[in-house]
Structure formats: C-alpha cells, structure tokens
Amino acid sequence: MNAPAATPLSASRSPALRGRVRVPGDKSISHRALIISAMTVGETRIDGLLEGEDVINTAKAMRALGAQVERTGAGSWRVHGVGVGGFAEPSAPLDFGNSGTGCRLVIGAVAGCPIVAGFDGDASLRSRPMQRVLDPLLRIGARVLEIAEHGRLPLRLQGALDPLPIEYRPPAASAQLKSAVLLAGLAAPGETTVVENEATRDHTEKLLAHFGAELTVTPEGQHGRRITLKGRPELKPQPVVVPADPSSAAFPMVAALVVPGSELILEAVMTNPLRTGLFKTLIEMGADIETLSVRNDGEEVAELRVRASSLRGVEVPPERAPAMIDEYLILAVAASFATGTTRMRGLKELRVKESDRLEATAAMLRANGVEVEIIDDDLIVHGTGRVKGGGVVATHMDHRIAMSALVMGLASDTPVGVDDTAFIATSFPGFVEMMQGLGAEIG
Ligand code: S3P
What we know:
- By secondary structure, the protein is α/β, with parallel strands linked by helices.
- Helix content is about 30%, strand content about 30%.
- The strands form six sheets. Strands 22-23-1-24 form a four-stranded mixed sheet. Strands 2-15-17-16 form a four-stranded mixed sheet. Strands 4-5-3-14 form a four-stranded mixed sheet, covered by helices on one side.
- Helix 1 packs parallel to helix 7.
- It binds shikimate-3-phosphate.
C-alpha cells in the first residue's frame, strides 16, 4: 500500500467553539459489524458505518474472503455473508493498512476456516506484535506458514482444518485478543471460553448475541469476566446501526473544555461503560459534561453537552485503562491545561498501539513546554493551567497523536504544528473540517 502524502497542519488559539456535531461511527463496532455479518447466512444492512480507511480495509478483506459487501449510501452498507466457516481462500494477501483491530480480528475469523490467507499492513502495523494473537489460535488448530521476524507482519496463516474449542486467558487486557479467539471459536464444536482478568470492550459479545450466537457472560474476580461461546451457531442477519464513536468524540470534547467560552453538543455518542473511562476522568477533573438524553439501541447512546471548564489534576487508576485505552493522548492534553499533577497509572499497553504512545505523548507535551515524566508504566503530567505551544509534533503514522496535538494548539499560547495529519483519515474522516466548522483555527 502506498503511504499517503504527508499533510502538515497547525492549530492556533481559537475563539470559543460552538455548535452541535455528530462524530463518525464507532470504529470497533464498524469492524465487527462487517466481519460478523460476513459470517451470517443472508444479507445484513449496516447504517452509520465509519467510512475511515481502517474500516474500508476490513470491508475489502471481507470481499476478498468471499462475502458480498456493497456501499448503498453514506454510511449505509449491505453485507451478504458466507456463513460460519465459509470464507473462501483470498487470491492475494489481505492488506489492513494502519489497522491493528481489523487485522487481528480477521486473523481470528480466518483461523477457524480451512483456508490459507496472507496478512499485511503499513509500516506502523508491520511494527506491532502479532504473536500474542497467534498463540491461542495455534491451540485452536491454525498454523503459521510464514511470518516476519519477531512475530510481525507480513504473515501467512493456514486456518484450522478441524478447529478445537479452547479456554483462554489473555495475557493482557485486550479486546482484540478476546475477539480473535471468539471469532475463531465460532467454527469450533463445543464451547470456547475467554477469561478476562479485566473486562475490555464487549462489542464482539454483544454483536454475536445480536446475530443469534449463544453466549454466557459472568463476572470473574473483581474486574473480570468469563465469556463462553457455543460453537457452530447459524448466525442470522440483523440490521446494525453504528453509534458515534466515543473515542472520536473525545477530541471535540476536550477541545471544548480547554478553549475558553466554548459550548458544544455531541450527538448520539456511545456511552458503553467499557468505553467511557475518559468521560469519567474528565468529570473527576472538574469538566462540565452533562448528559442531556440517553437511549439504548443495543448500545447505550447519549447526547452530551460540554462547556469550557477549569480542570484540576487527578490520579487515574490502572484498572480504568481498558475503558479508555485509546484516550490517554487526549487526556494528557486536558491534563496539560489543568492545574496540578495528573498521574495515569498502568499504561504498558500504550507501547504497542499505532505508535509507542507512551513515549509519543511525552514527546508531544515536552515539545510544547509541558512538564511530563514517565515512571515505569505511568505517565505524569504537571499541569499549570496553560500551555506554551510552539512545537511541531511528530505523528509517527498515528491518527490520535495528530488529533491530540491539533486540539492542544487550539488553546496554547502559540500555535502547535503537526508533521503529518494524513493518518487522521484512518478513524475520523472530516475531523479538520468539523473542528473548523465549530470555530477551530486549523490550517
Ligand atoms: C480495539 C481494542 C483496543 C483499542 C483499539 C480498538 C477493538 O486494542 O486500542 O483501538 O476494537 O477491539 P487492544 O485490544 O489491543 O487493547
């Protein structure tokens, strides 16, 4: 895949941000809706699908595996599935671009089918660990035919000829690992069980149940869950409406909190408690975030009003990490504008995201005059209520670094530059235009 051309941008101190916006569809649910509907028998309609590059690559992978996937309008897609275990052998390696989620979930789905498939991605994805997702899939019966050094992409996988049900305890709190095993387990007879010490986002479980799979979920220990899936279900098509992505809503939300005088309404934001650690933390910091209305469409969805607020530093406990794993970058921006110290504990998993986000967050803050420390796996931000700015932030092919740095520039004393904003399109197409529409000075 060709790397997109670098698009540098800079953000400057902006007037109050005002308006009502709906951020794009949830990335996690969009990937899963495509993958699981491709494993049904019949046709599923998906509305509100995120049409970012990551999800489009998953749609292409489903097509290459034999499903019919068709865009019928903005955010509206139809998927004609091939049934559990029915994927066809793709003629070329599947290219997931920048997306760890797309790649790891499809590795799981393919591992339960008797086919050979190649998996690849861009330079960022090629640097991310794949071995830990392969380990349980080998127990299910898949075989790795080829893999790059250190368990990285590109790789070629022979799916299980005779998949076995397993009980699996992920070595890290990762919804991707859990989901890969559950998707592979669909093709195995008997019961596949995943035991999580810390509960992670449960969209795979919810969507599998929505499409007719039998699952039981029970609490495990203080923060965990035991998920048992009955194998070889016939998954039946069901309509899916994808709610707005809380991980994307995080950027205009923090922008409105730190730009004085701002007031924003965020529409239809998913507020699944396994995704809203950031909202909770911001409220603890003193953020004025009000829930105006709530409904439940399979996932809880809320309309939120956010007003500029004076924030103060807080301690973020490690057990909250799974519910806000993608939000530490933007939380670090909020913490920079807060007064006092914010200590975010237990961020080991941040080192294996689209970039090493622990180091990249510290570098982003330092480049803009914020005092920051990394001690073991904790990130410590010493906020003074204002940010000098003036730095140029290296994106490292990471969409969330680019968006966080731009938000920082909207309230810092001098502008903040970003070396490349092209990767924003992986998760939040239209981000810059949406922010400009609210009054943000980005250009
Ligand atoms: C995701 C899980 C998280 C998250 C990623 C999306 C998912 O990764 O960082 O952006 O949709 O399952 P891990 O499961 O590796 O923590």
